[in-house]
Fold:
Amino acid sequence: MNEISRTYLPAAGRDWFLPFYDPLVKLLGGEAARKALLDQAALRPGQRVLDVGCGTGTFAVMIKRLHPDVEMVGLDPDLKALARAKRKAARAAASIQFDQGFGDELPYPEGSFDRAFSSFMFHHLPADEKGNTLRAVRRILKPGGEFHLLDFEGPEDHAHGFLAHLLHSNHRLQDNSEGRVVNLMRQAGFVDAKKVGCRTMLFGGVGYYRASV
Structure:
């Protein structure tokens, strides 16, 4: 892994905010937003599922709890967040593999996952890493596999609430417009890339995307 020589935005935006991140996001509707993302993926028993940028593991644990017969893997560069994720999974008695790594350097063989998710992570990436991350996700998905993404909308797509501005400066959201996200998915080799929904939350507008292999 190259985590020593690379920088990244921590899972909660700032290290000091990490202990408060999960309860606040849940209070403001993040759990419901992620449940809707999961529902659109229509997971089936036996599928192998990757959560890219899993952070503190909330979504990975939700997936495993609701779909105990899938093989669940979470990946994130933030060791502090991964430590919380592992404790969370242990408390839930959920068998989840957590790996440290970056989305544009996924340490998995080609075509080894049926589904991949990204929730509230894509805007963390610098503009030049977004395309590389999508190409990496495309590589590890099996033929017929799907990528499902949930994130803050760009400034031109929706007004943003106070939490979005608290966690991330405006330039982190400039590159998250619907047209930009869909175009990057297509350039990465995905087919049928499109925005499939949106919702308004206290921490801003969020958009749902789906793309296939």
Q: What stands out?
A: The two ends are 27 Å apart (CA to CA). The mean pLDDT is 85. The beta strands are 48-52, 71-76, 96-100, 113-119, 141-152, 191-201, 204-212.
